[in-house]
Amino acid sequence: MKSRSIHQSSRKPILANQTHIRTEKSKVLQRRSLHKHLTEQAIIEKSLHSSPKVFFVTLLACIILLAGVVWFVQSQSNKLAVLSGVDSKSLLDGSVSEETVTINQVSRYKTGATLPRRITIARIGVETLIRPVAAKEDGKPKNPQNINETTWLNSSAKPGEPGVTLIVGYMRGPTKKGVFHDVDALLPGDTIRILRGDSMHFVYKIDSVQTFKKGTLKADQALKLNPDQTSSLHLITSLQEYGIAIEQYEYDYLITAQLVQ
């Protein structure tokens, strides 16, 4: 009986020690759990605090990247324009058409009875309509809205009247040849036919094909080249060509012709 009592009393310290160990382990686990929780919370708070900065930095980077892309595309477009003889502005604003003008369109086109309606130049295969336009503020005639059409300066003489009838056409557009692309092939003696709105025909014979350094030919100059005030026709290539590279088209052309019929 006594030995049994001694055995039980010896187990009490062991049990107490085990209880203490379990308690300490529990405390350690609790501390680890708390530390983990605090660490995760700190990470979340840091992320929340840094999110606006990250957002704005990312946004700024995207804006810079987009600006770089726009600049690159613009610069490449300008380089291509110079190499191909195309003004990038004309590509962007669509200010000139390159649509083909059909014979049917030319035939159906109507204008005032005494105004020029159609121009025909057999040597270079031109037959297209003539649209009346006013002069711009700088005195230059407005350019055709289509590279395959021509314009008549409405302050110049009408066909058959004394003075200069001034007609303007493009040598080329943004990507295609214009109606006056081959005017350099014209020769003195070639004829130009003008059909008026009342269906009267006027035939002009070319007496000169003149070239002017790009940008030096003025519209008023072309109008004054007729001191005798005879009925004459002057054709000029557009004074504001869309995309004519200097190395490709160095000259503007002025073709003068006298009424013969």
Question: Mind explaining what this structure looks like?
Answer:
The protein is an alpha+beta fold and 261 residues long. The protein folds into 2 domains: 1-84; 95-259, Sortase, Chain: A, CATH 2.40.260.10. It has 4 helices and 8 strands, in the order αααββββββαββ. The protein has helices spanning 2-84, 88-93, 103-108, 219-224; strands spanning 116-121, 126-133, 150-153, 163-169, 191-196, 201-213, 231-237, 251-259. A hairpin with a 4-residue loop joins strand 5 and strand 6 (201-213). The longest helix has 83 residues, at 2-84. The chain is rod-shaped, with a radius of gyration of 43 Å. The termini are far apart. Residues 77-94 and 241-247 have low confidence and may be disordered.
Key phrases:
single chain; 261 residues; alpha+beta; Sortase, Chain: A; 8 strands; 39% helix
Question: What's a concise summary of this model?
Answer:
Helices cover 39% and strands 23% of the residues.
Structural class: alpha+beta
The main β sheet shows up as: 8 strands, mixed, barrel
Number of domains: 2
Distance between the termini: 155 Å
CATH class descriptor of the largest domain: Mainly Beta
Low-pLDDT segments, ≥5 res: 77-94, 241-247
Number of strands: 8
